[in-house]
Specification:
This protein is of the alpha+beta class. The protein has one domain: 60s Ribosomal Protein L30, Chain: A (2-Layer Sandwich). 23% of the residues lie in helices and 32% in strands. The chain has two helices and eight strands. The strands form two sheets. A six-stranded mixed beta sheet has the order 1-2-3-8-6-7, covered by helices on one side. A two-stranded antiparallel ribbon has the order 4-5. Strand 2 and strand 3 form a beta hairpin. Helix 1 packs parallel to helix 2. The longest helix is centred in the middle third of the chain and has 18 residues.
């Protein structure tokens, strides 16, 4: 078995529990769920689900970059929404970040998300 590499970057929020921002295993990156925390203040940003989704994907991109990948390397995401009523707004921002790249995705409603946010997204990616 190959060694596992812990990923850490100051460009994304620090883990708020006993986990890593991401783990690299071979050519795969397993990125932990990102929420709408501004890494410079360590606070949840203000705004609706669209603003939160934008921050989440910016955080996810920073973690992936630190791991040697990018949003273009993402093969699978899971989106957790506090309300499925926010699906369209989240989806519009998600499409802008991924552009023509369309990774596999699951979207689920969650009864509650960390720090009361509206959206959380994790990802599996390949390294560049």
């Amino acid at each position: 078995m190959k060694d596992l590499q812990v990923v850490h970057t100051e460009s994304a929020p620090q883990a708020i529990g006993p986990y890593s921002q991401a783990i690299v295993a071979g050519d795969l990156v397993f990125a932990s769920g990102q929420i709408a925390i501004d890494p410079s203040t360590s606070t949840v940003i203000e705004g609706d689900v669209a603003a939160q989704t934008d921050r989440v994907l910016t955080n996810l991109a920073a973690v992936l970059q630190a791991a040697g990948s990018s949003l273009r390397g993402v093969v699978k995401t899971t989106v957790y929404l506090a309300s499925m009523g926010d699906f369209s707004a989240m989806n519009e921002v998600y499409a802008r970040h991924f552009r023509e790249h369309r990774p596999a995705r699951a979207t689920v409603a969650a009864a509650g998300l960390p720090k009361g946010v509206s959206v959380e997204i994790d990802a599996i990616a390949v390294r560049s």
